[in-house]
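Field reference: sequence -> structure
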Amino acid sequence: MKKTISICLFGIFSLLCIGGIFQPWSAKEEDSEQRELAQQEAELVTEQETEYQAMESMSIQKAYSYYIFELDGWLAVYGKDGQTLLFETNIRFESLEKEVQERVLEGVGFADESELYDFLESYSS
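Structure field:
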């Protein structure tokens, strides 16, 4: 009987020791994973801030006087506020290349009349 109790106590003690040894290793792995995730998140936030600052600086540099957008299947010229329609053109939106169509949907800006008319002349037929 004493021998059985001793064996049971030894087994329990052994399990506690083994659990105590492996527990710090698993905790270290979790800490390492958490640090790695935190580092990745910090890098992502830094990358997003950099992109935002780049976009913000680009928008500051671009003060356009004229914009071209698509209006009912045609190109239309708007004022610097991007909402005041100045005139419609005879250039069909669908006649433009896909790249140019995408730019026009976002609004193509021009600093002065010369740039505007150069663009329009290159796409008029």
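Note: Residues 69 and 106 are 7 Å apart (CA to CA).
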